[in-house]
Specification:
The structure holds 2 protein chains of 2 kinds. Chain A has helices at about 1-35, 45-70, 75-95, 215-220; strands spanning about 100-105, 125-140, 155-160, 165-175, 175-185, 190-195, 195-200, 205, 210, 225-230, 240-245, 250-260, 260-265, 270-275, 280. By secondary structure, chain A is α+β, with helices and mostly antiparallel strands. In chain A, the strands form 2 sheets. In chain A, strands 2, 3, 4, 5, 6, 7, 8, 9, 10, 11, 12 and 15 form a 12-stranded antiparallel β-sheet that branches. A 3-stranded antiparallel β-sheet of chain A has the order 1-13-14. Chain B has one domain (about 15-160). By secondary structure, chain B is α+β, with helices and mostly antiparallel strands. The longest helix of chain B is centred in the first third of the chain and has 62 residues, at about 15-75. Chain B has a 4-stranded mixed β-sheet with strand order 1-7-8-5, covered by helices on one side. Chain B has a 4-stranded antiparallel β-sheet with strand order 4-3-2-6, covered by helices on one side. Classes of the chains: A alpha+beta, B alpha+beta. Strand 14 of chain A pairs antiparallel with strand 1 of chain B, so a sheet runs across the interface.
Chain lengths: ~280, ~160
């Protein structure tokens, strides 16, 4: 009889082992579920892309509005305002679908400085374009010579390549007239005076009334060069550049006016307020 | 045949000592198994925390970089950011424990740690080239934070 009792203990041990096994499995499974189910809240926030889009389309809309308002040759402020009003209405509606509020405070047109953003506090020294193969149009107009610096605060525009300066023009105010100095890397090629306008590729000044030898094409042809502005805040005026890049693409930049609207956007996660200087007509000539 | 002879021999057999030995061995085994489970659980908990900290750390690093990139690109284009407020929502507890988030702008790391346990510490690097992140330490029970860009100081603060 005792022999039989001892055999039963094996069943007890086996039962105990199964019990422990179940406990171990339960704890381990629970642990796995615990580890894999504390998922982080989704933090995919796409509003940053919406902001980048808003900046881009607002800039382009201002430029398009300006071109639209200039269709007749003179600036039509009513058309300009209507275009922007329509844009604001449609843009705010479109962004609302993505859960973003969009607003911009329209800004009046200003005469631009030669700084990077066209504002008087903009970056003085900047590059208009790089990898230029040829320039077809290079016009400067300074309608208010009193806003041009004197000989110690010259506005300088240069064409440079990888080996240095190819060509430069310096402009400064001398008794209410624009004093112009044209130079290459080592020598002064000519000095002129003008009242308001300089056509560098056309070798004329003051809207063609006078000719001048600016030597721009002669000194830049065959080079891969950049056009740079130095001391841009020392002059107020308009500029137009166009031509072709080394890649064969056309480039164009014109600045006749500048606006500085304030764009405000907000979503459930982000709020941003930024100024957005836009050159008009900019690159959409 | 000899074994059968031994089975019947009950000399030097004590039921009490047998029971005590069996009981002691059982208790010892249970304690060992339980402590192993406890260690296993603790390690799993720390691993969960580190995984979660990495997820949230990367999320914060992305937000810092987003603000930094916006400031940098605005600056490059001659524009100016006047104000940015970026909401940041973090769980009040991870694996049932509160934690802290330290922003170290010397090493450019976001350092997560729970209850000062070294095993839970995670450092997530962030990148800010155009702005400065103000060093600060957040404590998780608050839950909701705001990342603010200050254009005057060109800095990002988190509070």
């Amino acid at each position: 009889m005792r022999q039989l009792d001892e055999n039963a203990q094996l069943l007890l041990v086996a039962g105990f082992a199964v019990g422990v096994g179940i406990v171990v499995l339960t704890i381990m499974l629970n642990n796995v579920i615990y580890a894999s189910n504390i998922a982080s809240e989704s933090s995919i926030d796409t509003s940053r892309y919406e902001i980048a889009n808003a900046v881009q389309i607002t800039s382009e809309s201002y430029q398009d509005a300006y071109i639209y308002a200039m269709e007749t040759g003179t600036f039509n402020n009513t058309a300009f305002e209507e275009y922007l009003h329509s844009y604001a209405f449609m843009a705010s509606g479109n962004f609302a679908i993505s859960g973003i509020t969009f607003n911009f405070e329209n800004n009046t047109l200003h005469d631009p400085y030669f700084t990077q953003n066209g504002l008087d506090n903009g970056r003085d020294n900047w590059t208009v374009a790089t990898n230029i193969n040829s320039t077809d149009l290079f016009l400067l107009e300074l309608p208010d010579v009193s806003k041009l610096g004197n000989s110690s605060e010259k506005l300088m525009i240069t064409a440079t390549n990888s080996s240095g300066l190819l060509w430069a023009i310096e402009l400064y105010n001398s008794g209410g007239k624009i004093n112009i100095t044209v130079r290459d890397r080592t020598t002064i090629l000519g000095t002129y005076t003008a009242s308001s306008q300089v056509n560098i590729t056309g070798d004329t000044k003051d809207f063609g009334s006078d000719s001048a030898a600016f030597h721009f094409s002669a000194l830049t042809t065959g080079h891969d060069y950049s056009i740079n502005v130095i001391n841009g805040s020392k002059a107020l005026g308009y500029c137009t550049f166009s031509g072709s890049m080394s890649s064969g693409e056309q480039f164009g930049f014109a600045r006749h006016k500048v606006v500085d609207p304030r764009v405000t956007m907000s979503s459930s996660q982000i709020y941003i307020k930024r100024d957005l200087p836009v050159s008009l007509p900019g690159g959409r000539t | 045949m000899k074994l059968r002879g031994l089975d019947e021999d009950e000399n030097a057999v004590s039921i009490s000592i047998g029971f005590i030995l069996t009981f002691a061995i059982t208790v010892l085994m249970l304690v060992t198994i339980l402590s192993s489970f406890y260690t296993l659980m603790d390690q799993a908990e720390q691993k969960v925390m580190r995984d979660e900290f990495e997820i949230h750390g990367n999320d914060i690093a992305v937000r810092i970089t987003t603000i930094d990139t916006m400031v940098g690109s605005a600056d490059d284009s001659g524009s100016q950011i006047m104000e940015v407020k970026y909401g940041l929502s973090l769980p009040q507890r991870i694996a049932g424990k509160p934690y802290s988030v330290e922003f170290d702008n010397i090493s450019s790391d976001i350092v997560f740690v729970s209850e000062e346990r070294e095993g839970t510490k995670v450092k997530v690097p962030y990148y800010a080239d155009n702005t400065v992140v103000i060093p600060t330490t957040l404590h998780s029970p608050k839950g909701e934070y705001v990342m603010t860009y200050d254009p005057a100081a060109n800095s990002i603060s988190i509070s």
